Amino acid sequence: MSTTSAKGPRSTYFVVRETRVLRELGESEERIASVVTWRDATCFTDAERVALELGEAVFTADPSGERVPEELYARASAHYDDKALWTLVMVIAHIGFFAPAALIAKPIPGMPPGRNYTD
Q: Which of 2, 42, 63, 97 makes an SS bond possible with 11, Cβ 3.0 to 4.6 Å?
Protein backbone atom coordinates (compact mmCIF):
# COMPACT_ATOMS: atom_id res chain seq x y z
CA MET A 1 0.00 0.00 0.00
CA SER A 2 1.26 3.45 -0.90
CA THR A 3 -0.26 6.84 -0.34
CA THR A 4 0.66 10.45 -0.69
CA SER A 5 0.07 12.92 2.10
CA ALA A 6 0.81 16.57 2.76
CA LYS A 7 4.28 15.46 3.88
CA GLY A 8 5.06 13.52 0.71
CA PRO A 9 4.93 9.91 -0.45
CA ARG A 10 4.27 7.14 2.05
CA SER A 11 4.88 3.47 1.35
CA THR A 12 3.87 0.67 3.67
CA TYR A 13 6.39 -1.56 1.90
CA PHE A 14 9.30 0.74 2.75
CA VAL A 15 8.07 1.36 6.29
CA VAL A 16 7.89 -2.39 6.95
CA ARG A 17 11.26 -3.06 5.31
CA GLU A 18 13.16 -0.22 6.97
CA THR A 19 11.54 -0.83 10.36
CA ARG A 20 12.81 -4.40 10.20
CA VAL A 21 16.30 -3.14 9.32
CA LEU A 22 16.24 -0.68 12.24
CA ARG A 23 15.27 -3.46 14.65
CA GLU A 24 18.09 -5.65 13.33
CA LEU A 25 20.49 -2.74 13.94
CA GLY A 26 19.30 -2.53 17.55
CA GLU A 27 17.15 0.61 17.41
CA SER A 28 14.60 0.82 20.21
CA GLU A 29 10.88 0.51 19.56
CA GLU A 30 10.49 3.98 21.08
CA ARG A 31 12.77 5.58 18.49
CA ILE A 32 11.28 3.62 15.60
CA ALA A 33 7.72 4.56 16.57
CA SER A 34 8.70 8.17 17.27
CA VAL A 35 9.96 8.89 13.75
CA VAL A 36 6.43 9.76 12.66
CA THR A 37 6.20 12.40 15.42
CA TRP A 38 9.88 13.35 15.43
CA ARG A 39 9.20 17.05 16.01
CA ASP A 40 7.66 16.30 19.43
CA ALA A 41 9.71 13.22 20.33
CA THR A 42 12.45 13.62 22.92
CA CYS A 43 14.53 10.62 21.86
CA PHE A 44 16.37 12.24 18.92
CA THR A 45 19.57 14.27 19.02
CA ASP A 46 19.74 17.71 17.41
CA ALA A 47 21.72 16.20 14.52
CA GLU A 48 19.07 13.51 14.00
CA ARG A 49 16.33 16.13 14.12
CA VAL A 50 17.94 18.24 11.41
CA ALA A 51 18.43 15.10 9.28
CA LEU A 52 14.74 14.23 9.66
CA GLU A 53 13.79 17.82 8.87
CA LEU A 54 15.99 17.80 5.78
CA GLY A 55 14.42 14.59 4.52
CA GLU A 56 10.94 15.90 5.20
CA ALA A 57 11.71 19.16 3.40
CA VAL A 58 12.92 17.34 0.29
CA PHE A 59 9.75 15.27 0.02
CA THR A 60 7.23 17.96 0.93
CA ALA A 61 5.91 20.09 -1.89
CA ASP A 62 6.34 23.80 -1.20
CA PRO A 63 4.04 26.05 -3.20
CA SER A 64 6.30 29.02 -2.44
CA GLY A 65 9.25 27.40 -4.18
CA GLU A 66 12.43 26.24 -2.47
CA ARG A 67 12.06 23.06 -0.44
CA VAL A 68 15.44 23.23 1.32
CA PRO A 69 16.10 26.79 2.38
CA GLU A 70 19.67 27.95 2.98
CA GLU A 71 18.94 28.18 6.73
CA LEU A 72 18.07 24.47 6.90
CA TYR A 73 21.15 23.52 4.89
CA ALA A 74 23.29 25.67 7.21
CA ARG A 75 21.86 23.93 10.28
CA ALA A 76 22.58 20.53 8.72
CA SER A 77 26.12 21.67 7.88
CA ALA A 78 26.63 22.65 11.51
CA HIS A 79 25.95 19.07 12.62
CA TYR A 80 27.67 17.11 9.84
CA ASP A 81 31.07 17.42 8.21
CA ASP A 82 31.25 17.45 4.40
CA LYS A 83 31.49 13.65 4.05
CA ALA A 84 28.66 12.96 6.52
CA LEU A 85 26.43 15.61 4.94
CA TRP A 86 27.05 14.16 1.48
CA THR A 87 26.22 10.70 2.84
CA LEU A 88 22.96 12.08 4.25
CA VAL A 89 22.16 13.70 0.90
CA MET A 90 22.78 10.36 -0.85
CA VAL A 91 20.54 8.51 1.62
CA ILE A 92 17.74 10.98 0.93
CA ALA A 93 18.39 10.68 -2.81
CA HIS A 94 18.21 6.89 -2.53
CA ILE A 95 14.80 7.18 -0.91
CA GLY A 96 13.73 9.57 -3.66
CA PHE A 97 14.93 7.15 -6.32
CA PHE A 98 12.82 4.27 -5.03
CA ALA A 99 9.75 6.23 -3.88
CA PRO A 100 8.17 6.32 -7.38
CA ALA A 101 8.45 2.52 -7.64
CA ALA A 102 6.59 2.16 -4.36
CA LEU A 103 3.96 4.70 -5.35
CA ILE A 104 3.38 3.23 -8.80
CA ALA A 105 3.94 -0.52 -8.38
CA LYS A 106 2.69 -0.83 -4.78
CA PRO A 107 5.06 -3.58 -3.59
CA ILE A 108 3.72 -6.04 -1.04
CA PRO A 109 5.15 -5.56 2.48
CA GLY A 110 7.12 -8.52 3.79
CA MET A 111 7.81 -10.04 0.38
CA PRO A 112 11.42 -10.33 -0.82
CA PRO A 113 12.67 -8.06 -3.64
CA GLY A 114 11.80 -9.44 -7.06
CA ARG A 115 8.71 -11.18 -5.69
CA ASN A 116 7.14 -8.23 -3.93
CA TYR A 117 4.82 -6.97 -6.68
CA THR A 118 2.48 -9.95 -6.95
CA ASP A 119 0.64 -12.14 -4.45
A: 2
